[in-house]
Amino acid sequence: MPTTRTILACLLLGHPAGARQPAQPLCPPVGPQPAALIALARSAVVSAARGTPLPALRPQAPPRPVFVTIERDGRVLGCRGSLEARTGSLEAEVVLAAQAAAVHDPRYRRLTPADTQRFLVTVTIMDRLEPIRDVSGLTPSAGLVLRSGGRCGVVLPWEGKDPAVRLRWAYTKAGETQGASVQLFRMIAERYRG
Questions:
Q1: How far is residue 63's CA from residue 53's CA, in Å, rounded to a whole number?
Q2: What stretches of 38-95 adopt beta strand conformation (E)?
Q3: Nearest of 161, 165, 157 to residue 192 by alpha carbon
Q4: Reported pTM
Q5: Contact 124, 61 (CB under 8 A)
Q6: What's the Cα-to-Cα distance from 102 to each of 7, 41, 106, rounded to whole Å?
């Protein structure tokens, strides 16, 4: 049985194109207000794409695992994050994920300054993972993490609605054969978009 730390060490491996996401947060905010986190993520994306420095951070909240997704016209331009906090504050986690999504997602081209004229960001802040036996009760507001050996597949909250489809995506993201024996976890997270 893997430890929680081992499970949390898996990184985000994909984001299905065209996945729909609601505009409202699903959970009450913890720490900075959602608008401040969205503004910080947007600033970090612009900073990375334009190669300009980001203003100094004012850490206010303890670190939590974060994912940032960048979209334009319903199309994903980048999505990066981690199931484990890697910095000293929530704000630094948002910046790290946002900048990685802008310029270090190997599935998408690096964002250019022109890309920063019009885009949306979604900030997903993970609260916890809960082991589950199957996906039959998985709601769209919960994410899905599939673990197989040292591989991980992550489907963020509101990436699709059908649990069976989301499970197929998780297998694919983990690079695992569909139907292979795996461990499944429900991701409970806060999600903000703007």
A1: 22
A2: 66-72, 75-81
A3: 157
A4: 0.83
A5: no
A6: 25, 10, 10
Longest CA–CA separation in the chain, Å? 47
For 10, residues 6+ apart whose C-beta sits below 8 A from its C-beta are 83, 145, 147, 151, 152, 154
Amino acid present at 4: T
Residue type for position 173: K
- What confidence tens digit (pLDDT) does each residue in 136-193 have? 999 999 999 999 999 999 999 999 999 999 999 999 999 999 999 999 999 999 999 9
- CB neighbour class for 140 (10 Å; exposed up to 12, middle 13-18, buried from 19): middle
How many whole angstroms separate alpha carbon 98 and alpha carbon 119? 12
Phi, psi of 119 (to 5 degrees): -160, 160
